[in-house]
């Protein structure tokens, strides 16, 4: 599926290199889509680009934009019912902007958890080019379920599983940060503008360590990732515990050094002093 959907850019380049003028399938595609809608008694909406979409369930989470990472379960087929691709469990795409225009636009009408159908004319897909089992000029249809937008819901499920598997007693904050407190501490409690000295160990939910400091290190909290800055403020000097940080409070969709985009990261910390 990934190769099919990201092939649009290459197809555009190929099309431009041909001497023959491209065929305009717009009118014929629209007639075919309207006929399909009528034959299947669909309640479809048409956008200004010529895309048709059916919303069976709107969903109640985030709406994606072109730069978002999404996970989608789908079935792709032609108007004659021939299936050309399918992912029942869902496939993760690192960025919508790498996909065909009909998908970029179509998914934006759904919220996380939404289900429906995209009926995509050729000018929003592969134009006058054959693409695998998809003939040139074809209308393509996708039954879709927008499972995740970015990582927030997925991260939260991963964190809850980690907490259960490790028998942790963790607090969840309004931001989505989880923390455990082994020792509260008895000294000064820092604010987000303070400089602190700590020791820490950073690792993933699979236990792989990506960073560690056994000796005191000083940081200005305001310069750290949001989850770390927030988490430290729940402890007092002498306190220790664990911060379990979802990616939207860390590095988001971006790979940073050895930390892949979308990762939950965990820190065992000890707050030595507030400076």
Automatic annotation (TrEMBL):
It is an enzyme of class 5 (isomerase). Keywords: Isomerase, Rotamase. Its EC number is 5.2.1.8. Transmembrane segments: none annotated. The keyword Isomerase applies. GO terms for molecular function: peptidyl-prolyl cis-trans isomerase activity. Belongs to the FKBP-type PPIase family. PANTHER family: 39 KDA FK506-BINDING NUCLEAR PROTEIN (PTHR43811:SF19), FKBP-TYPE PEPTIDYL-PROLYL CIS-TRANS ISOMERASE FKPA (PTHR43811). This is Peptidyl-prolyl cis-trans isomerase. It comes from Thalassobellus suaedae.
């Amino acid at each position: 599926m990934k190769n099919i959907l990201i092939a649009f850019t290459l197809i555009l380049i190929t099309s431009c290199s041909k001497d023959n003028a491209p065929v305009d399938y717009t009118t014929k595609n629209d007639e075919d889509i309207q006929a399909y809608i009528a034959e299947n008694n669909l309640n479809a909406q048409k956008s200004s680009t010529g895309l048709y979409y059916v919303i069976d369930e709107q969903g109640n989470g985030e709406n994606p934009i072109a730069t978002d990472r999404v996970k989608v379960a789908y079935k792709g087929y032609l108007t004659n019912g021939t299936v050309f691709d399918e992912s029942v469990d869902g496939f993760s795409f690192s960025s919508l902007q790498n996909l065909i225009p009909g998908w970029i636009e179509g998914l934006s009408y759904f919220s996380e958890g939404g289900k429906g159908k995209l009926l995509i004319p050729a000018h929003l897909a592969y134009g006058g080019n054959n693409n695998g089992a998809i003939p040139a000029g074809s209308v393509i249809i996708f039954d879709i379920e927008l499972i995740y937008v970015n990582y927030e819901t997925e991260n939260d499920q991963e964190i809850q599983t980690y907490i259960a598997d490790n028998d942790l007693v963790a607090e969840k904050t309004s931001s989505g940060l989880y923390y455990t407190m082994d020792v509260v501490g008895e000294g000064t409690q820092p604010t987000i503008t303070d400089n602190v000295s700590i020791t820490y160990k950073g690792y993933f939910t699979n236990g792989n360590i990506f960073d560690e400091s056994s000796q005191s290190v000083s940081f200005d909290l305001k310069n750290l990732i949001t989850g770390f800055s927030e988490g430290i403020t729940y402890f007092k000097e002498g306190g220790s515990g664990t911060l379990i940080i979802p990616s939207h409070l860390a590095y988001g969709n971006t790979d940073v050094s050895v930390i892949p985009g979308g990762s939950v990261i965990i820190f065992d910390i000890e707050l030595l002093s507030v400076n």
